[in-house]
Design brief:
By secondary structure, this protein is mostly helical.
Length: 416
C-alpha cells in the first residue's frame, strides 16, 4: 500500500508540470482566438464561400485589386513554417517571411501598436488551433511597374510608426484599453480615417485632427466617429455605442457595408469591459473645427425633390415612417441619422441600390435587413430619393447634391 502511494505521488509530481504547461498553452491559444476576434482577421482572410483564414478575398486599391493571403498553418501555402519572429514582422512591420513587403491594404500600421504578449497569443492561436488549408495565394491585379514591392520600403520609412502602444498616464485604465483596441487590433482608422495621396492614413491616433473623422471606402463612406453632432457621434452616448457594437443597431443608426462583417465577426463577441472601453475612448474624441448642429434645409420644391418624395412614399415609408423615425433598433431611423449628413453620398446610394447583408447576432439573423432596390429603381430615381432624404433629414446637407451620373457610376462598381 505504501509502495503504491509512493508511485502515485511520484507520478503526480511528474504530471503536474505538464498539466500546468498544457493549461498555460490552452489559455494562450484561447486568448489568441479572442484577439483574432478583436482584429476581425477572418473577414479579410476568408473569400466568399471559402475556408476560414485561407485568403483570396479581393480588396480594391486605387491601382488595382490585391488579395488577402492564406494565414492557416499549412506548411506550403500558409504560415505553417513561420517562426514567431516571422509572424511578428509581417503583423507589425508589413514584411513577409521571404522579405517582400506587404501592401498597406493589410493594416499593419495599426497592428504595429500591438504588444508583444498579444502577438505571441495570436501566433499560438493561428499555429495550433486554426485548421490548415492548402490554398495557394493569388497574385494582385496591379500591373507592372506599379506592382513592384521595393517602393513599399520607402513608404514604411515615411508613414509607418513602429512604436508599440504605450498607456497615457493622464488617462484612465478604461480609456487606455479602449485606445489600445481601437488604434491597434481593432484598426478602426483603416476605414474611418481619410487617406493621403500615397494611400497613407492621415492620422494614427487622436493627436491628429483627421483621425476617425470619416473616409470613402470601396463604394461606401465610413462615417465619422468624432464628436460632430450632425455627421458623427455627438448625439450618441456610451450606451448607444455599446448597443451598436453589440448588435449593429441602436436608436440612431444601423450597420451596413463592411461594418456588418465587423459586428458579425468581431465586436459582438467582445467582453463587456472591452466594449465599454472602446465606447469610452470614442466618446473622448474631439469635435473637429466647424462641426456642430446645423439648421435643417427645407426640401427643395424642384422636380427632383418631388420625384424623390414619391419614390420614398412608395418604397421607403412603410419601414422608415413619414417622420423618418423608423422603429429602432429593428428598422433604422433616418431622422438624426449621421449617415444622412455625411459629406459623401456613397453610402446612401449604395445601400439603396444593393441593400445590406444580414446582421447575425448570437446566431440569429436580423429580421428586417434593408432590401436592394437596384432592380426596380432607375439611376434618376435613386438620385431623387437620396436627394429627398438629405433635404428632409440631412440636418443641413445639400439637398441638391446627388446626380443620376453618380448613381450610374456606383451601380457599375458595386454590382453584385
Amino acid at each position: 500500500m505504501i509502495r503504491r502511494l509512493c508511485v502515485a505521488a511520484l507520478l503526480s509530481c511528474c504530471w503536474m508540470p505538464s498539466a500546468h504547461a498544457a493549461d498555460a498553452a490552452g489559455a494562450l491559444i484561447e486568448r489568441g482566438a479572442y484577439l483574432a476576434r478583436v482584429g476581425d482577421c477572418v473577414a479579410c482572410h476568408t473569400a466568399p464561400k471559402g475556408k476560414p483564414y485561407a485568403g483570396g478575398l479581393a480588396m480594391s486599391t486605387p491601382v488595382g485589386a490585391v488579395y488577402s493571403t492564406n494565414i492557416t498553418p499549412d506548411p506550403r501555402t500558409g504560415i505553417g513554417t513561420w517562426t514567431l519572429r516571422d509572424f511578428e514582422r509581417a503583423l507589425r512591420h508589413g514584411v513577409s517571411r521571404d522579405g517582400h513587403n506587404l501592401y498597406p491594404a493589410m493594416p499593419y500600421p495599426s497592428y504595429a501598436k500591438v504588444r508583444d504578449e498579444d502577438v505571441a497569443a495570436l501566433y499560438a492561436y493561428f499555429m495550433r488551433a486554426v485548421p490548415a488549408v492548402k490554398q495557394a495565394n493569388r497574385e494582385s491585379d496591379i500591373r507592372w511597374p506599379l506592382n513592384m514591392r521595393w517602393p513599399l520600403k520607402l513608404w514604411n520609412l515615411a508613414f509607418l510608426d513602429q512604436e508599440v502602444f504605450r498607456d497615457n498616464a493622464a488617462q484612465s485604465a478604461t480609456w487606455n484599453r479602449g485606445a489600445y483596441l481601437t488604434q491597434g487590433l481593432g484598426h478602426c482608422g483603416a476605414c474611418h480615417t481619410s487617406r493621403g495621396a500615397a494611400f497613407q492614413e492621415k492620422a494614427l491616433d487622436e493627436r491628429g485632427d483627421q483621425y476617425l473623422q470619416g473616409a470613402a471606402l470601396e463604394g461606401w463612406y465610413a462615417s465619422s466617429l468624432g464628436g460632430d453632432r450632425r455627421a458623427g457621434l455627438g448625439r450618441w452616448n456610451e450606451q448607444d455605442l455599446r448597443s451598436f457594437l453589440r448588435t449593429g443597431a441602436n436608436r440612431h443608426a444601423t450597420a451596413f457595408g463592411s461594418m456588418t462583417d465587423v459586428i458579425n465577426n468581431s465586436t459582438q463577441h467582445l467582453t463587456d469591459a472591452d466594449t465599454q472601453a472602446i465606447a469610452h475612448y470614442l466618446k473622448s474624441l474631439p469635435t473637429p473645427d466647424g462641426a456642430g448642429l446645423f439648421a435643417a434645409v427645407p426640401v427643395a420644391t424642384s422636380a427632383q425633390a418631388l420625384s424623390g418624395a414619391r419614390v420614398y412614399g412608395k418604397y421607403c415609408l412603410q419601414c422608415h415612417g413619414a417622420d423618418g423615425r423608423g422603429v429602432p433598433p429593428l428598422l433604422a431611423p433616418l431622422a438624426l441619422n449621421p449617415n444622412l449628413a455625411a459629406p459623401r453620398t456613397a453610402s446612401l446610394i449604395n445601400v439603396t441600390l444593393n441593400g445590406t447583408r444580414e446582421l447575425v447576432i448570437g446566431g440569429l439573423p436580423a429580421p428586417y435587413p434593408m432590401p436592394a432596390f437596384g432592380k426596380v429603381l432607375s439611376d434618376a430615381e435613386v438620385a431623387d430619393v437620396v436627394t429627398y432624404l438629405r433635404g428632409q433629414w440631412g440636418q443641413g446637407a445639400d439637398p441638391m447634391s446627388v446626380s443620376a451620373d453618380e448613381v450610374r457610376k456606383l451601380r457599375k462598381t458595386t454590382r453584385r
